[in-house]
Amino acid sequence: MPKFIYKAKKSPSDVVEGTIVADNKGSAIQKISNMGYYLLSIDEYIKSRKALEKKSGFFRERASLKDITNFTRQLSDLLEGGLTIVKALDILHDQTENRRLKDVVADVRDFCIDGNSLSTALARHPKIFSNLFVSMVRSGETGGALENILKRLSDFNEKQLEIQTKIRSALAYPILMSAVGGITIVVLLTFVIPKMITMFGDLGQNLPIPTLVLIGISNTIKRYWWLILFFIILASFIFMRLYKTRDGRLAIDNFKMNMPLFGNLIKKVEIARFTRTLATLLNNGVPILQSLDVVLDTVNNAVVKKEVNKVSTHVRGGANLAFGFSKSSIIPPFVVNMIAVGEESGRVEKSLFKIAESYERETDAAVKVMMSLLEPVLILVLGLVVGFIVISMLLPIFEINFLVG
């Protein structure tokens, strides 16, 4: 039998919220009226998370990190203002613009109305709220400081968002330049060169070697473009399938971390991310073993995940955190020493925060250096390719002028 969630007035100043089971919406409205309430709103209660995901669909708008950060910050402010969780979620549901998140907030609110905790309700949506998010909310509920935990969570998410934005902004210009350069080269090879070939054929003269090479490339692309496209799609498919396997992902992530320039940047980003995550969890009272398990879920790089898993194994065996990290092949001595100092002073979370801040600064500097090198290299490569095409097209014309002269 369907379940409905309603909001109604019990008296001019007393608004009540609840759920009611009825055959249909009309029957539910009748039951609420019989209770002596003045109905304000009523909706069918979507209790099944799978039903909610099916409702969202493949092409439905997705909740970004920015959307979740705004939601967390606003929820913290509303709870700090003295509102109940259900009332705060109801307000956020009304003002949330992202349709996907709006549906999720409605489901979380309805689940809380049934008497469940906020962390339990959030855990029903792992694609929206990470294990880190749920664990910190649970610790906030246990310690009675939920609004403060939510505020720290929003600070944490804003920091992650800032790092993402910096990297994307730095890569935007090189990607745009590569795309424009690639399109220019393809247009020259598929449309301009064939017309030039016809003109050269009418002249009946021997063509220079660069021009012959260019004509060969142009003819290959024009005749076998479908085969080239097929191999690109096939290679992409194989790569994605390989990346989904454990060994394949480990090999690919290991290759990325050993790439010149990019590898060092990836390593710094990952160290900054997992140390800040671990520090945030420990600072909010989450036990160290549980914190390490949560960190494992938030780490994207398979190599780093493997190393953190080794650290977790050492700690479960009775070793301290510094010893566990000292056995890792990718963790720098600076990180190990800072953690050791933190454990000796009893404030390991402070040391982890300092490590994260240090590596975030290094990440910013590395991005600036990488971009300062990448942009001129891209310009040089594109200039050489386009220059070769232009010179190859002009050489026969120069030879004709030379012969005529």
How would you describe this protein?
This protein has 405 residues and is mainly alpha-helical. It has three domains: 1-45; 49-129, Receptor-associated Protein; 158-405, Receptor-associated Protein, CATH 1.20.81. The protein has helices at residues 25-34, 49-56, 65-80, 85-95, 99-113, 118-123, 131-143, 146-203, 209-244, 246-257, 262-283, 288-298, 302-316, 321-326, 333-345, 348-404, and strands at 3-11, 14-21, 38-44. Helix 8 (146-203) runs antiparallel to helix 11. It is extended, with a radius of gyration of 30 Å. Residues 47-51 have low confidence and may be disordered.
List the topology elements.
Blueprint: E1 3-11, E2 14-21, H1 25-34, E3 38-44, H2 49-56, H3 65-80, H4 85-95, H5 99-113, H6 118-123, H7 131-143, H8 146-203, H9 209-244, H10 246-257, H11 262-283, H12 288-298, H13 302-316, H14 321-326, H15 333-345, H16 348-404
Helix pairs in contact: 3-4, 3-8, 4-5, 7-8, 8-9, 8-11, 8-16, 9-16, 11-12, 11-16, 12-13, 15-16
Explain briefly what this protein structure is.
With 405 residues, the chain is mainly α. 76% of the residues lie in helices and 6% in strands.
